[in-house]
């Protein structure tokens, strides 16, 4: 209407030849309209977001029960984008009030993100902050059922709230599926909606994964000897035959080490592997896979000791719980950052914030007299050897070399080497026999949070603040592989028992599994709500447990990449996790001064029975909670005989 | 809009020598300052997590600054959290207390002690899933009792260290084994040494003894049955029981059923100790106290504990074929359980029992001096039981206790006071119950219960004849006679006395009294019946003030 009148007026003025009036009118008109629009935009933009979101929120909360949880999922990304839009448009004050008003809704699920995003106060911060950039650049994908989607579209059309429509169109991709809305328990999928990672995760998790155990492992050979001795028992001439077998086997080993002809070895091994599977087919034996790395051979005497341990292993299950031996660090003055225990429990190492690494030999602590004896004998020489005697007096061996706090230590499988990683960006290899530094590995650009020896030794993996995990071999000072992909610090790293994969946990709340051969990400696990601090992979290689800062422990199925059962296991950070040797128990140690033992087999059974349905309903069963005396638990390790070692520093004053 | 106000920026600017910061700059800087602070905090939290701490320290912030290639802020590193002080007069202005240090002081101060070096110690956090209650582990309120099968039969020898892997066996650490052996040795051999006292103290206090409880209970049961004639050992065992019961860290309920028989044996055994001279009464008393304390403490857990116990005891009490020593134990046990038990179980049977007991106590009917002595014992314990029951009844009615301060009563009191030494002796003898009741009570054999003065004479003679041991107790009986006569009269005519009183005050009091008596007539009956059976001896259980009411 108005436009027509205006047109008519202009036409009239032109017809009459009132040129100046026409120009004046035009000028006035443009000024007016621009004024009005700019005013209204700046004022109403903020209000539009505020009102629009408020209405959407109350609508979502009042929607039908069965669709509500799906619709509520939409709120969080809308909330974040509204906030960012407000910031981007320069409405700092409004953005802040908006954020504060609606923050509560999302605190339970996304506290960490909120805390980070809260700091955004200028458009430049949006550019700078990783998380914000991710949000801006990627679309969030939300799965909605048909009807929920229709409800949402209807609502948006009816209310004509363009701001909301804009945000939703711009930043959210809906994946509409037919049928009933998914159950509430699937919500965990919606927890971490960072960019395309959902898509990526699904894509990555489609990949093939050989989670089985290593061929030709000592365990396998042990089984083989056992089964063979069984067989020969039937034959009657047991002893001679087994001896013969052993001889043959060791011969074979020597042969293979000498020649190092992988093909040939594989052939032999493949044959034995088959026989095993056929023999014990009734028990679910994990499949065997070939090593992708060239792995070192254990010397025969070492192998013998492992076999001895395996024979003496205690069977653990929900009824037979392990014994726990606890190593308490005293007088650490808050300086102990990490600790580790060798497989047989004889060596304990600690990494300190004063850059030192200390190793205790528990066998020597039992006999305190021995260390001081030589000092008395060399009384006359004391002046000269005061330094040496001082050395001897110390009950531990002190390893100095790092120039920053030591964040992790790790023993090689036979405790002859120790790795330590530090905030000086280096990893150092120490010999426990010589008590000396052998190598310093440089490659990371930022503090190295974690370093772990592979189960077979020789290789190790590291995790760093530079958002990469790296794979090294002890004899090269450059990394063999760099695993990049995490969006934030890589906080912990763990080897798969078959040495073909390493798992990393990160501050971006995801856990990834990497193929050591290609260096590609093989699995992406999304579900944690805060920084992942600890990882453990079950001895059969199928399951992985991860613990985070909030005390949650999640169990993952490596083959499908799905979460088995999230549990609120502790009230504080889960520093360490360990599977028992048969994989029946999971032990977790935490800052709340508890060691907890969880039953894995029962939850696995539940998983297997309703594998067809969506699994995550089953939960881990707590078998036992063992409180310590104000000692946070830093390290847990099951020995080969299934004795559980734990270590922690007594925290004084609490 | 930022949590950092622009005033703060201005103050900081001034402090680093920029006097005139334009407000625009301050406004622009404020949000960025907040952002950087958050960034540093985030990194600092990461560092904190990797040093396995849950408290953020200045070191973490320094590490975070290092991560960002920034110069750390020096001077704040300290192991303690920084203490901010509030500036006086300003509500939200805080500062760090930063004292100026005098060099001289620092130099003169003695060198601080070198900090202790880091050390590693080991202990068992759990043995096959069970936490041993050793000092290194936190005290556990309630340890689940091990299943029954695993504890008893193996005695001491199964307590090998944990290499033994049969899951049924109860594993005992070597230290605990030694401890157990040592205690056993002390009990059996050297119970009179001061060391044994320390051992008892340790049993009552130490937190790590729970694994030993089954062994102790077995040991006690075993030794009690074997050493019934060895009084010192029994005593030592009972003291061990008492210590174990008083240990707050031990969860003893599951083992009570094993311990109770041994204790009850000590209480009601026919013969305890092999010599006549052995003071087996003392161990019965001690055992009765233990039993009572068990009932008090665990009665609510085992609701049938007390009923079973009383049933056992009352059987012992009511069986005439049982020895007097057993009766004594039963009475002691029942009376230790409290006055209400006495009232319900002993008093109804008292009269019949007294008829049974009477002949035993008389010189002419019971020739065996030992038996007679025992009978007197039983009599004493019955008196104590009845008396304490009466005392309890009276205590429930404090209205009775207010002594009316009237002249005649005062004179009465004087008279009573003259008796005091004698009464005291009676009381003490009765309280310990180690001696037969005083001879005045021996009047009862004559059967003339209510008339004291008349019985006085024969009483003295009979007691002096029958109880040579206790001659000394009653030479002042004649002094008493007048007062006791008063007492009896007063008692018999209590209502009359109170009613006939000419004083207004007394009327009021007596009204109260009457009320009270009405409400609790059985207490009155109780008194009279007890008096009927025991004579004057029962009065020593009435508090002096109450005595006034009766006199």
From TrEMBL, chain A:
Residues 222-254 have a biased composition (Basic and acidic residues). It comes from the Eukaryota. One of its GO terms (cellular component) is transcription factor TFIID complex. Residues 44-172 form the TFIID subunit TAF5 NTD2 domain. Pfam families: TFIID_NTD2, WD40. The keyword Calcium does not apply. Keywords: Nucleus, Repeat, Transcription, Transcription regulation, WD repeat. Coiled coil: none annotated. Transmembrane segments: none annotated. Its main location: nucleus. SMART domains: WD40. WD repeats lie at residues 329-362, 399-440, 441-482, 483-524, 525-566, 567-608. Residues 222-270 are annotated as: Disordered. It is found in: Nucleus. This is Transcription initiation factor TFIID subunit 5. It comes from Rhynchospora pubera. The lineage of its organism: Eukaryota, Viridiplantae, Streptophyta, Embryophyta, Tracheophyta.
TrEMBL record, chain B:
It comes from Rhynchospora pubera. The keyword Nuclease does not apply. GO terms for molecular function: protein heterodimerization activity; RNA polymerase II general transcription initiation factor activity; transcription coactivator activity. Keywords: Activator, Nucleus, Transcription, Transcription regulation. It is found in: Nucleus. The keyword Ribosomal protein does not apply. Residues 2-68 form the TATA box binding protein associated factor (TAF) histone-like fold domain. GO terms for biological process: RNA polymerase II preinitiation complex assembly. This is Transcription initiation factor TFIID subunit 6. One of its GO terms (cellular component) is SAGA complex. Residues 454-468, 475-499 have a biased composition (Low complexity). SUPFAM superfamilies: ARM repeat, Histone-fold. Belongs to the TAF6 family. Residues 418-499 are annotated as: Disordered. Its main location: nucleus.
């Amino acid at each position: 209407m108005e436009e027509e009148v205006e047109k008519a007026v202009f036409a009239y003025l032109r017809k009459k030849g009132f040129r100046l009036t026409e120009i004046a009118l035009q000028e006035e008109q443009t000024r007016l309209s621009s004024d009005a629009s700019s005013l209204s935009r700046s004022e109403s933009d903020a209000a539009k977001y505020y009102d629009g979101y408020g209405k959407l929120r109350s609508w979502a909360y009042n929607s039908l029960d069965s669709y509500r949880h799906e619709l509520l999922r939409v709120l969080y990304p809308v909330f974040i984008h509204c906030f960012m839009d407000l910031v981007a448009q320069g409405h700092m004050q409004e953005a802040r009030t908006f954020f504060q008003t609606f923050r509560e809704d999302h605190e339970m699920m996304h506290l960490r993100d909120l805390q980070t995003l809260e700091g955004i106060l200028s458009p430049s911060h949006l550019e700078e902050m990783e998380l914000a950039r991710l949000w801006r650049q990627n679309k969030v994908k939300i799965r909605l059922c048909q009807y929920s989607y229709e409800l949402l579209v209807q609502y948006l059309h009816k209310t004509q709230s363009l701001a909301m429509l804009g945000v939703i169109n711009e930043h959210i991709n809906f994946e509409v599926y037919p049928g009933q809305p998914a159950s509430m328990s699937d919500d965990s999928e919606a927890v971490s909606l960072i960019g395309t990672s959902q898509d990526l995760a699904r894509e990555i998790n489609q990949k093939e994964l050989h989670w089985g155990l290593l061929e030709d492992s000592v365990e396998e050979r042990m089984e083989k000897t056992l089964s063979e001795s069984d067989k020969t028992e039937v034959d009657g001439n047991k002893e001679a035959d087994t001896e013969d077998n052993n001889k043959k086997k060791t011969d074979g080993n020597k042969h293979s080490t000498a020649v190092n002809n992988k093909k040939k070895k594989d052939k032999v091994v493949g044959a034995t592997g088959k026989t095993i599977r056929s023999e014990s087919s009734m028990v679910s034996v994990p499949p065997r896979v070939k090593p992708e790395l060239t792995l070192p051979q254990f010397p025969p005497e070492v192998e013998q000791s492992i076999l001895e341990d395996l024979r003496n292993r205690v069977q653990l299950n929900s009824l037979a719980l392990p014994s726990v031996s606890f190593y308490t660090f005293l007088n650490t003055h808050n300086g102990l950052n990490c600790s580790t225990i060798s497989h047989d429990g004889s060596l304990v190492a600690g990494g300190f914030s004063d850059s030192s690494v200390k190793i205790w030999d528990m066998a020597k602590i039992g006999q305190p007299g021995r260390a001081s004896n030589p000092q008395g004998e060399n009384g006359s020489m004391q002046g000269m050897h005061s330094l040496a005697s001082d050395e001897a007096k110390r009950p531990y061996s002190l390893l100095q070399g790092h120039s920053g706090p030591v964040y992790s230590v790790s023993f090689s499988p036979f405790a002859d080497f120790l790795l330590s990683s530090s905030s000086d960006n280096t990893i150092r290899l120490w010999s426990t026999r010589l008590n000396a530094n052998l190598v310093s590995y440089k490659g990371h650009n930022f503090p190295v949070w974690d370093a772990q020896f592979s189960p077979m030794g020789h290789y190790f993996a590291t995790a760093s603040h530079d958002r990469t995990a790296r794979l090294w071999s002890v004899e090269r000072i450059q990394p063999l592989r760099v695993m990049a992909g995490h969006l934030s610090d890589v906080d912990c790293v763990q080897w798969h028992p078959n040495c073909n994969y390493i798992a990393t946990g990160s501050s971006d709340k995801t856990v990834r599994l990497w193929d050591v051969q290609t260096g590609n990400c093989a699995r992406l696990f999304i579900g944690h709500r805060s920084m992942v601090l600890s990882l453990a992979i079950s001895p059969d290689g199928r399951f992985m447990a991860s613990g985070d800062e909030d005390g949650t422990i999640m169990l993952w199925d490596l083959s499908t990449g799905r979460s088995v059962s999230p549990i609120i296991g502790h009230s504080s950070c889960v520093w360490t996790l360990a599977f028992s040797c048969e994989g029946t128990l999971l032990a977790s140690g935490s800052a709340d001064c508890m060691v907890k033992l969880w039953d894995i087999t029962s939850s696995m059974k539940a998983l297997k029975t309703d594998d067809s349905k969506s699994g995550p309903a089953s939960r881990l069963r707590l078998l036992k909670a063992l409180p310590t005396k104000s000692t946070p638990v830093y390290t847990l390790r099951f020995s080969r005989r299934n004795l559980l070692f734990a270590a922690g520093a007594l925290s004084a004053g609490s | 809009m930022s949590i950092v106000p622009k005033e703060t920026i201005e103050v900081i600017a001034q402090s680093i020598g920029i006097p005139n910061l334009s407000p625009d700059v301050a406004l622009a800087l404020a949000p960025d300052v907040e952002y950087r602070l958050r960034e540093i905090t985030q990194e600092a939290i990461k560092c904190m997590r990797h040093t396995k701490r849950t408290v953020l320290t200045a070191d973490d912030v320094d590490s975070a600054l290092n991560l960002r290639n920034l110069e750390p802020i020096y001077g704040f590193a300290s192991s303690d959290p920084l203490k901010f002080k509030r500036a006086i007069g300003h509500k939200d202005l805080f500062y760090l207390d930063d004292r100026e240090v005098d060099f001289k002081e620092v130099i003169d101060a003695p060198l601080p002690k070198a900090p202790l070096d880091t050390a590693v110690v080991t202990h068992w956090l759990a043995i096959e899933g069970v936490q041993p209650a050793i000092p290194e582990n936190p005290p556990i309120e309630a340890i689940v009792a091990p299943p029954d099968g695993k504890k008893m039969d193996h005695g001491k020898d199964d307590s090998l260290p944990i290499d033994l892997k049969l899951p049924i066996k109860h594993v005992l650490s070597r230290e605990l084994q030694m401890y157990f052996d040592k205690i056993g040795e002390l009990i059996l051999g050297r119970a009179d040494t001061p060391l044994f006292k320390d051992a008892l103290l340790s049993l009552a206090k130490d937190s790590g003894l729970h694994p030993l409880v089954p062994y102790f209970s077995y040991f006690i049961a075993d030794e009690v049955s074997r050493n019934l004639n060895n009084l010192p050992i029994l005593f030592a065992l009972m003291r061990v029981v008492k210590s174990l019961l008083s240990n707050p860290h031990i969860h003893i309920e599951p083992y009570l059923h094993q311990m109770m028989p041994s204790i009850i044996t000590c209480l009601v055994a026919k013969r305890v100790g092999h010599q006549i001279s052995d003071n087996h009464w003392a161990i019965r008393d001690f055992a009765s106290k233990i039993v009572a304390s068990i009932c008090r403490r665990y009665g609510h857990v085992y609701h049938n504990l007390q009923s079973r116990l009383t049933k056992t005891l009352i059987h012992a009490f009511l069986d005439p074929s049982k020895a007097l020593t057993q009766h004594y134990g039963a009475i002691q046990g029942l009376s230790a359980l409290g006055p209400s038990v006495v009232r319900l179980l002993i008093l109804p049977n008292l009269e019949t029992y007294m008829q049974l007991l009477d002949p035993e106590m008389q010189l002419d009917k019971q020739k065996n001096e030992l038996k007679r002595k025992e009978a007197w014992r039983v009599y004493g314990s019955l008196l104590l039981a009845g008396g304490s029951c009466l005392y309890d009844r009276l205590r429930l009615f404090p209205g009775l206790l207010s002594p009316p301060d009237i002249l005649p009563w005062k004179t009465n009191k004087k008279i009573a006071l003259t008796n005091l030494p004698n009464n005291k002796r009676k009381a003490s003898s009765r309280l310990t119950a180690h001696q037969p009741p005083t001879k005045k009570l021996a009047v009862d054999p004559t059967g003339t219960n209510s008339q004291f003065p008349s019985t006085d004479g024969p009483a003295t003679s009979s007691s002096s004849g029958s109880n040579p041991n206790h001659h000394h107790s009653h030479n002042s009986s004649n002094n008493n006679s007048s007062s006791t006569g008063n007492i009896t009269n007063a008692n018999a005519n209590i209502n009359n006395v109170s009613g006939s009183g000419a004083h207004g005050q007394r009327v009021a009091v007596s009204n109260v009294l009457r009320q009270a008596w009405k409400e609790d007539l059985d207490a009155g009956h109780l008194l009279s019946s007890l008096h009927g059976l025991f004579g004057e001896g029962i009065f020593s259980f009435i508090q002096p003030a109450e005595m006034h009411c009766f006199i």
